[in-house]
Amino acid sequence: MCSRRWEWCSAVELLLLPLLVAGISDSPEKITCISGSNVTLKTSKKMLDNYIHGTWFYTTNQKIVEWDSNKPNYFNTKFKQRVELDPQSAALHIYNVEKSDSSTYLLRVSNESGSEYDMSIILEVFDPVPNFVIKTETKEVSGVCYMNLSCEIPDQSVDYIWHTDSGPSPKELHRSVLQVTIPPQNKSNSYTCQISNPVSSQNDTVYFLPPCNLDRSSGVTHIVNLLVLLIPTIPVLLLT
């Protein structure tokens, strides 16, 4: 390894020896998926060189599966009927993932000399954002309309963005409740709440109708629906 200043190089190697034996894992990979889907935790090729034993952990002390000589042994955990090990690549297939499966998974392999190498994978599982309806409260005082719009759902992992006719709300208003004050001269506006997480999103829209009313369909929609109702009667009116 080093031909010159042998003593100095040997000293450095001795200092690094515990790290080389223990095996330093790479920065953990992060996988994001939606609940109900299937996911594969893959290994790096350098982990498979001359290894004779391996273990997948759900947490640092809960084993999912371990194997020697390509013979897997699955432990009696919640994963037992939902995981499958690929003995050739050491990849772990997890089926029908659940939100509670979110964790840092650890793969530990060892070779004939007893040296171990660890690799971590962070798995984040999110439920799809459910359908929701904006809750509204309005109050008119001296021609000014005060509105309180709410779209909160019981999920801490979601983000809220309100959109109006003029575009998305400022970042400081990215919350589940939007308070709006509309003066008499203001034109009709739409207010859309978008709830999202890393895997899905849903939205709902309400429309402001002067002087201080909210509706779930725009005035254009009302006109279209009215025309649909009137069209069948127009020929009858022309014949009479």
Automatic annotation (TrEMBL):
InterPro entries: CD2/SLAM_rcpt, Ig-like_dom, Ig-like_dom_sf, Ig-like_fold, Ig_sub, NK_rcpt_2B4_Ig_dom. One of its GO terms (biological process) is natural killer cell activation. It is found in: Membrane. Residues 130-207 form the Ig-like domain. GO terms for cellular component: membrane raft. Residues 1-23 form the signal peptide. Pfam families: Receptor_2B4. PANTHER family: CD48 ANTIGEN (PTHR12080:SF134), SIGNALING LYMPHOCYTIC ACTIVATION MOLECULE (PTHR12080). This is CD48 molecule. It comes from Cavia porcellus (Guinea pig). The gene is CD48.
